[in-house]
């Protein structure tokens, strides 16, 4: 990398050395290994953060006085490339760069370097550790405000049909992927899946009920899109005292704000973080009959009410629709972990039921 391409934040000589080494390795031809990166960080390394079900690996390292996070995806995978492009796009239009320091795409691996924020605790971690709603609330509000700033400065009006088409294509693709897992088939396409004693419909059926009704699609689909984080669930909101940052933005098409409000609803109402942390009990009581009890943190109950009130009924319904679709869309990515995926599918079914109630009520 030539010096001009190294942002001023890497003026710290120690960091400059690490970034040079990473850039060199990333552009090498053989695919790198995790071990080679760990070895290369040498005495800069603090720890490796094992995160969940993800194509990237995260290393914490120290350079000079500052702790950093290195996120790398080995080989030519696209997920981290999109994330890097999100940061570059935000910076190109003068938006805050958050924790981002530098990054590089390469054939051996793609990497990002971020400033480390706090001790890596997320809003989900805080909620699961029993923080009160009052303490959680400020972080949620700040994260939502950051997203609103991004959106305000990039938004544009588009036909509802355009927004709907992008969303529907994504869900249809994931339904097709999901149905290739035999155990998921009834949860997606079943006429009746009994959840905690309530006879409900399979996820894909509920989704079809919405998309087949033009007036409902129009009601639930916003006609404005812009740059947003694009994966702002409570496991991607970092907390440190009263400071808040959002990580793990998802590059891709511009999106409506309802998309990320849906991620928040998915966390605070749908128990997404609790399921990821294994904090749920699940029993299959008969064929297509389940009992599920998710330990959604008590602090989140008040946040769910706050979100609903703050958004008002209409925007809340739009967020709820997104939350239900998020549960549906993520199933194939989790499908190798069967129990967790069943829990996610059941939460999605319950979320569609809430949407039905909200639309009826
Ligand atoms: N800049 C940072 N400062 C502190 N902690 C961080 C930072 N970036 C990431 N982390 C920690 O690493 C975790 C995973 O990061 P991130 O969400 O970017 O990766 P991921 O591969 O998408 O993982 P996941 O699938 O868990 O979302 C975060 O939840 C957080 O705990
Ligand atoms: Mg994440």
Sequence-ordered SSE layout with sheet pairings:
Layout: H1 13-26, H2 34-41, E1 45-49, E2 57-63, E3 66-74, H3 79-92, E4 100-104, E5 109-115, H4 123-128, H5 133-152, E6 156-157, H6 160-178, H7 185-189, E7 193-195, E8 198-200, H8 203-211, H9 214-220, E9 224-225, E10 237-240, E11 243-246, H10 257-268, H11 272-276, E12 280-286, E13 289-294, H12 298-334, H13 338-360
Parallel strand pairs: 7-13
Antiparallel strand pairs: 1-2, 2-3, 3-5, 4-5, 6-9, 7-8, 10-11, 12-13
Helix pairs in contact: 5-12, 6-12, 10-12, 12-13
Bound molecules: adenosine-5'-triphosphate and magnesium ion (MG).
In words, what does this structure look like?
The chain is α+β, with helices and mostly antiparallel strands and 361 residues long. It folds into two domains: 3-115, Phosphorylase Kinase, domain 1 (2-Layer Sandwich); 123-360, Alpha-Beta Complex (Aminoglycoside 3'-phosphotransferase, Chain: A, domain 2), CATH 3.90.1200. 50% of the residues lie in helices and 18% in strands. The protein has 13 helices and 13 strands. It has helices at residues 13-26, 34-41, 79-92, 123-128, 133-152, 160-178, 185-189, 203-211, 214-220, 257-268, 272-276, 298-334, 338-360, and strands at residues 45-49, 57-63, 66-74, 100-104, 109-115, 156-157, 193-195, 198-200, 224-225, 237-240, 243-246, 280-286, 289-294. It has a five-stranded antiparallel sheet, sandwiched between helices. A four-stranded mixed sheet has the order 8-7-13-12, covered by helices on one side. Strands 6-9 form a two-stranded antiparallel sheet. A hairpin with a 2-residue loop joins strand 10 (237-240) and strand 11. The longest helix has 37 residues, at 298-334. The radius of gyration is 21 Å and the shape is globular. The structure holds adenosine-5'-triphosphate and magnesium ion.
